[in-house]
Every structure is written in structure tokens, then in C-alpha cells.
Write a structure and sequence with these properties.
The protein is mainly β. The chain has no helices and ten strands. The radius of gyration is 13 Å and the shape is globular.
Length: 113
């Protein structure tokens, strides 16, 4: 059974930083392309970033490029999202996702002064 468990969300002031983690079990993590997506209240799901299986290739949405960094530790079966210079508009529920669109329960990020 595939399980994805996100953590690290919090309330942070604009300009602050957070690091999200996603612990994965039940699949060959080292073979799977992984992504982060987010959903703000009342808005559609938004793709943020994708990383290939060995971590060498990454892609970012324009809205987060230069501020967010996706990474992975295949030995720990964990996906990360380092978020810097956070903005109010980054407020959302953040999910990690496999390339088969399996997601975890999400972790809430709230950016507010």
C-alpha cells in the first residue's frame, strides 16, 4: 500500500522560510518521479515543482522559481521542498504527489503577518 505523509507546514511571516518533507512508503521511491502541488482555498490544484527519480532534473512553476527548491533523499525515501522568501499568496495546502497522481493528506502552509 502506497503511503505519502507530508509534514513541515506552519504559520510563517512574509519573507520567512519553511522546509516541507514527504515520507514515502509502499513503492520503489528511487524509481518514481515526484512532484509538489498545492491548493489554496477556493482555487484549483496548482503544480509547483517536479523532480526526476535520481534528483538530477528539476522543474518549477514560474510562481515559485528562484524561491523554492525541490530535492529528494532516495535512501530515506523522502521528498523535500525548501521554501524561501514566502509570500502571502503561497498560503495553501501542500501535497506531494507521485507520477501516478497519488497524494498524501497534505500539510498546511499559512503566510501572514
Amino acid at each position: 500500500q502506497v503511503q505519502l505523509v507530508e509534514s513541515g507546514g506552519d504559520l510563517v511571516q512574509p519573507g520567512g522560510s519553511l522546509r516541507l518533507s514527504c515520507a514515502v512508503s509502499g513503492l520503489r521511491f528511487e524509481l518514481v518521479i515526484m512532484s509538489w502541488v498545492r491548493q489554496a482555498p477556493g482555487k484549483a490544484l496548482e503544480w509547483i515543482s517536479t523532480i526526476n527519480s535520481d534528483g538530477e532534473v528539476t522543474h518549477y512553476a514560474d510562481s515559485v522559481k528562484g524561491r523554492f527548491t525541490i530535492s529528494r533523499d532516495n535512501a530515506k525515501k523522502t521528498l523535500y521542498l525548501q521554501m524561501n522568501n514566502l509570500k502571502v499568496e503561497d498560503t495553501a495546502m501542500y501535497y506531494c504527489e507521485t507520477n501516478s497522481r497519488i497524494r498524501g493528506q497534505g500539510t498546511q502552509v499559512t503566510v501572514s503577518s
